[in-house]
Amino acid sequence: MLEKKIALLTSVTFNNIGNGFIDLGAEAALMKALPLNAELFKVSSNANFAATMGQMFMLKENPIINWLWVHTMQRAAKKLHDRSYKTVKTQNIFSMASMVKCDYFIIPGCVLTVPFFTIYGDLIKRKAEQGSKIIFLGASGNFYTEYEVKFVSEYLRKLQPYAIMTRDSLAYKYYANFTKNSYNGIDNVFFVNLLNLPQIDTDLTPYVVLNIEEPKHYRIKEELKNIFKEKNIVYSYHKPFPYTKVSKLVKSGVIVSDNPMDYLLLYRNASEVYSDRVHACIPTLAFGNKARLFSNSPRIALFENAKIPNVRERLVSIEGLKEMQDKQIAFLASLLQ
């Protein structure tokens, strides 16, 4: 029997190491779902991102523009973010992702968005034309504004992907009808415990992790520092670039790495994690530890799908994860037969 070739499109991590957690979780789930006659390989999305977004990110990383975005423009993110991509031109880029032939092309994460289809629309269209079955795995939108939903719906209507597996109920509500195979499941990062990272001792064990990055949460960070002043505290930061900022952070004792596994090992062995980032809390919970989220992001829906909607109210753990994983893996396996 001929072997099926399954390609997993991996994301860029320089602006958010959590994207690497998504890739690793997706890979772990896929390895459990693979039929015996299939091979999985990974291809990077970096070429398209660099070609399309290079100049925009040069501006965004400018200290003055970054300060303006964080302190003023971010309040209007829902209105400004997606519409700013009208100025971005989709690039037809040669890369391993574009040239490889595969039976299935797997796209994980927050990809049912205006930025994703602006940057990668031509690539995904090309893969479909090559005969690849397109599967969105653990996918969601950004803000679910009228503009975003209309934009994404128009693209999916033309693409008609083989399957859409969502990580929140809004994505399922808006986009499930654009495929014959839909599933309302959980985020890929809930599968990182399948990587079987070890429990280890450290110089600070037991320790609490504070991953509070938003300037607006400064007071929360200070309150937590005071609460845990008698405990060992480890600070982490999820943006491994630019080095001008990373240099200052690591010199002050903050964990910053370009390797997602460093963070997963940190959260695997933490007693508690407090964060304003969804993807500091989710791996912590997946490893069986406790976490609390300080955020008003629409990403709270990822916790609702995993039956832990109160993660913003108190320190929580997750129950029934294996059952949710098994159901999602079984559905994924049925697609790959």
Structure description:
This protein has 337 residues and is of the alpha/beta class. It has 2 domains: 201 residues, 3-Layer(aba) Sandwich (Rossmann fold), CATH 3.40.50; 122 residues, Rossmann fold. The protein has a 6-stranded parallel sheet with strand order 2-1-3-4-5-6, with helices on both faces. Strands 8-7-9-10 form a 4-stranded parallel sheet, with helices on both faces. Helix 6 links the parallel strand 3 and strand 4. It is globular and about 60 Å long. The mean pLDDT is 93. This is Polysaccharide pyruvyl transferase domain-containing protein. InterPro entries: Polysacch_pyruvyl_Trfase (IPR007345). Pfam families: PS_pyruv_trans.
Secondary structure: elements and pairs:
Layout (H helix, E strand, L loop, with lengths): L3 E7 L7 H16 L4 E7 L1 H15 L2 H9 L5 H7 L12 H4 L4 E5 L5 H16 L3 E7 L6 H14 L3 E4 L2 H7 L6 E3 L22 E5 L6 H10 L4 E4 L7 H9 L8 H9 L3 E4 L2 H9 L3 E4 L6 H6 L15 H15 L2
Parallel strand pairs: 1-2, 1-3, 3-4, 4-5, 5-6, 7-8, 7-9, 9-10
Protein name: Polysaccharide pyruvyl transferase domain-containing protein
Pfam family, one: PS_pyruv_trans
InterPro entries: Polysacch_pyruvyl_Trfase
